[in-house]
Amino acid sequence: MRQARGNGGAARRTAGMAMMASAALLLAGCGPAEETPVLTWYTNPDDGGQAAIAQKCSDAAGGAYRIETSILPNDAASQREQLTRRLAAGDTSMDIMSLDPPFIPELAEPGFLAVPPSEVAEATTQDTLEGALAGATWRDTLVTVPFWANTQLLWYRKSVVEEAGLDMDGPVTWDQMLQVARDQDKELGVQGARAEAMTVWLNALIESGGGQIIENPEAPADEVEIGLDSDAGRKAAEIISTIGTEGLGGPGLATQQENEAMLLFQGDSGSFMVNWPFVWPATNASAEDGSVPADLPEDIGWAVYPRTSEDTEPAPPLGGINLGVGAASQQQDLAWDAIECIVSPENQTEYFVTNGNPPSSASAFDDPSVRERFPMAETIRESLELAAPRPQTPYYNEVSTAIQQRYTPPASVDPETTPAETGQFIQEVLRGESLL
Prior knowledge:
- This protein is of the alpha/beta class.
- The chain has helices at 7-27, 49-60, 76-88, 104-108, 118-124, 130-135, 158-164, 174-184, 196-208, 231-245, 258-266, 279-289, 332-342, 345-355, 368-373, 377-386, 396-406, 418-430, and strands at residues 38-43, 66-71, 96-99, 137-138, 141-142, 145-151, 153-157, 187-189, 270-275, 300-303, 318-324.
- The protein has two domains: 3-22 and 34-143 and 319-386, D-Maltodextrin-Binding Protein, domain 2 (3-Layer(aba) Sandwich), CATH 3.40.190.10; 152-316 and 393-430, Periplasmic binding protein-like II (D-Maltodextrin-Binding Protein, domain 2).
- It has 18 helices and eleven strands.
């Protein structure tokens, strides 16, 4: 990746090193040389993988820079609040930031993010998967660099599928899964809590049905058109409602997020589950420590996200982290150099193997260590090519909060009224006529 960039990064680094050498000579007779520049990288919490990459890239920089990490709060809403406040205040320490894709339009629209130089954009996205690239873009411009990407797969119990006679090599629909759960008195692992996971689920259902939650995402607030009250939107509401009203999501559906859905899936009533790849190492660890039956992993299969409509390709959820540089950063050139190092396929591979977060780079999935630890790596890569980001809009927080309020608990969702009423409510909020 660093070599593919051409002369831009090398030229900046050579110039920087030359300036540092000159400064050292001038100061040789009157004191110590200038200290190594320090870049601050605001990271989301993980298992230490970003800190390890920061140290690795600092060592590789040969004194051009040193990266220090600063960990953001645990939940996405608090991360967004802290980043937005700092950027709006012109904080010059915002050298590198780990950003969730839904935050990006809100931060890019007012000019809080520095746009990657063309040579950086070219070097860091040569083999980036389509879904990850879409989540790093605003107004047809790359405004952040994809680091790691994430997506949900359809996980299934092989014993359940075998009894149902369902062919998992072909397209699988939500309607088929619902019927299998009814026939075998099983439950589906989905996320029905009043949380971001509900927006993730609803968006994937609508996108997989050929629709969009926001039909004109770049429009001003008072002109935003909401696509919830559409054929795809009503079908999505029907699926959520059916799972809730028929009890197919288990007794804890109303408070169920990703971890709780995994526990449900691991139990005797498990059948199908939509969830992120973390469930595979987590289930294997539980099998090893005796928390679940030792042979449970052998009964687990995986496939691409289920279809909302039989004749429409699925659009799995997109997650992950992109790297941005604050517009007020006084070390932007060094920050872009550091980002090129951070997102190299080698570092993405290591991060996947050690922290369980999939690469945004297509080639990183070919590494033997990835295939050994994640036998579903090819399905994850396929899913990331199909994945669709959540609504790309500067008003994402308002849209997501309104959805969470109106689509939970799932049993309260009415396919005939909830989409239209929620769409109207969102428009009223954006026009300042209603409060969340």
